[in-house]
Write a structure and sequence with these properties.
The longest helix is centred in the N-terminal third of the chain and has 13 residues. The strands form 3 sheets. The protein has a 7-stranded mixed beta sheet with strand order 1-11-10-9-2-8-3. It has a two-stranded antiparallel sheet with strand order 4-7. With 207 residues, it is α/β, with parallel strands linked by helices. It has a single domain, classed as 3-Layer(aba) Sandwich (Rossmann fold), CATH 3.40.50.300. A hairpin with a 7-residue loop joins strand 10 and strand 11.
């Protein structure tokens, strides 16, 4: 693979241009995918909000971490089970129903910004937000690809195996990330791949 070094500011600028160039969609879904705690998915998604608004697009930030299943389901096989983290933690059905389906051309545009508070382990009772035409949902999280979720632009923050082992905060979860890489190959499914072994000096994959 060939990677082009890119500053964080230029990365945000290029992604903003890529998003604003999407046509033929009433509303746009963008996913920023990467290992939790080891990549800066949240920071990158946050950084896109203001440039998109300046470009005339309403932007709504959503975290997949607010669409996790209740603890009784996530931890049914223990709190440190990598297979559960990979396949059972994220409520894919709710994310599809409450966030992505409303963005479809025949969708209502009414998006639920959060569903479940994983810290308090209870529903957030958030109100739906009406996203106007031309609006963009910026969703960040892990294991977002390969599960049938529909995105208009997919961004994957990739770590080399050595960097992943060095930076992932939950060492017990490493088999989940290895399984994701092996079974899904998120880089192959993504529109944009960014190597973030050094988060201050990212590099963009050039095919």
């Amino acid at each position: 693979m060939r990677y082009r070094p890119i500053s964080p500011a230029l990365l945000v600028s290029e992604l903003t241009e890529r998003i604003t160039a999407i046509t033929g969609r009433r509303r746009i879904a963008v996913a920023v995918d990467g290992a939790a705690g080891a990549t800066n998915t949240t920071e990158l998604a946050d950084a896109l909000v203001d440039p998109l608004r300046v470009a005339g697009h309403a932007a709504l930030r959503i975290s997949a971490n607010d669409f996790l299943r209740p603890a009784s389901l996530r931890f049914e096989r223990g709190k440190e089970d990598p297979d559960s983290r990979y396949s059972d933690w994220l409520d894919l059905g709710a994310l599809r129903r409450e966030v992505l389906d409303p963005l479809a051309d025949d969708g209502s545009g009414l998006v639920l910004p959060s569903l479940w508070d994983p810290v308090r382990d209870r529903a957030t009772r958030a109100e739906r937000v009406e996203l106007p035409e031309g609006g963009v949902v910026l969703l960040d999280g892990e294991f977002l690809f390969g599960a049938g979720l529909a995105f208009d632009l997919s961004v994957h923050l990739w770590l080399s195996p050595a960097a992943l082992k060095r930076r992932v905060p939950d060492a017990w979860a490493l088999p989940a990330y290895e399984r994701y890489e092996r079974e899904v190959d998120p880089s192959a499914l993504s529109d944009v791949v960014i190597r973030v072994d050094d988060p201050k000096h990212p590099a963009r994959y050039e095919p």
